[in-house]
Amino acid sequence: MIKVGDTLPDARLFEFVEVAGEGCAVGPNGFAVRERTAGKRVVIFGLPGAFTPTCSAKHVPGYVDAAQRLNDAGIDEIWCVSVNDAFVMNAWGRDLQTSGKVKMIADGAARFTQALGLDQDLSERGMGIRSQRYAMVVDNGVVKTLNVEAPGKFEVSDAESILTTLR
């Protein structure tokens, strides 16, 4: 499992872009994790799945509500990463009104999640390979804080816990 002081794996993730911009076409756009985190402080939080109860009611909304305070604490971007496709992550972000606050990032094949060593097999529950629930602060691609939840818990990966580590 990745740990504090490690560099993020150079995986490729996807973000759905609704408006074409410089270097970004409308639709799913892939990017290299190390390239996107270079020179930035990023909070990355992972969770088991889009539209799931705790993720939708508490985890993502907590980061949406805390986005300005995280930015004020020196965080450049906030990423929600889930083993779902970019279309699902975009729809979920629209539903939770994350625009401009939390980037909804797709790890459809679980490559990033597995490279972190934070995957879990939820096949018996009909979900397949998914992410454990976690949050990390990354500075220039290096993990500075890593909070991984115990199975079935939501106590250390929330936005308030990350804000505490930044104080």
TrEMBL record:
<keyword id="KW-0575">Peroxidase</keyword>
<dbReference type="InterPro" id="IPR036249">
    <property type="entry name" value="Thioredoxin-like_sf"/>
</dbReference>
<dbReference type="GO" id="GO:0008379">
    <property type="term" value="F:thioredoxin peroxidase activity"/>
</dbReference>
<keyword id="KW-0676">Redox-active center</keyword>
<dbReference type="GO" id="GO:0042744">
    <property type="term" value="P:hydrogen peroxide catabolic process"/>
</dbReference>
<dbReference type="InterPro" id="IPR013740">
    <property type="entry name" value="Redoxin"/>
</dbReference>
<protein>
    <recommendedName>
        <fullName>Glutathione-dependent peroxiredoxin</fullName>
        <ecNumber>1.11.1.27</ecNumber>
    </recommendedName>
</protein>
<feature type="domain" description="Thioredoxin">
    <location>
        <begin position="2"/>
        <end position="167"/>
    </location>
</feature>
<dbReference type="GO" id="GO:0034599">
    <property type="term" value="P:cellular response to oxidative stress"/>
</dbReference>
<comment type="function">
    <text>Thiol-specific peroxidase that catalyzes the reduction of hydrogen peroxide and organic hydroperoxides to water and alcohols, respectively. Plays a role in cell protection against oxidative stress by detoxifying peroxides.</text>
</comment>
<dbReference type="GO" id="GO:0005737">
    <property type="term" value="C:cytoplasm"/>
</dbReference>
<keyword id="KW-0049">Antioxidant</keyword>
<keyword id="KW-0560">Oxidoreductase</keyword>
<dbReference type="InterPro" id="IPR037944">
    <property type="entry name" value="PRX5-like"/>
</dbReference>
<feature type="active site" description="Cysteine sulfenic acid (-SOH) intermediate">
    <location>
        <position position="55"/>
    </location>
</feature>
<dbReference type="Pfam" id="PF08534">
    <property type="entry name" value="Redoxin"/>
</dbReference>
<dbReference type="InterPro" id="IPR013766">
    <property type="entry name" value="Thioredoxin_domain"/>
</dbReference>
<comment type="similarity">
    <text>Belongs to the peroxiredoxin family. Prx5 subfamily.</text>
</comment>
<dbReference type="GO" id="GO:0045454">
    <property type="term" value="P:cell redox homeostasis"/>
</dbReference>
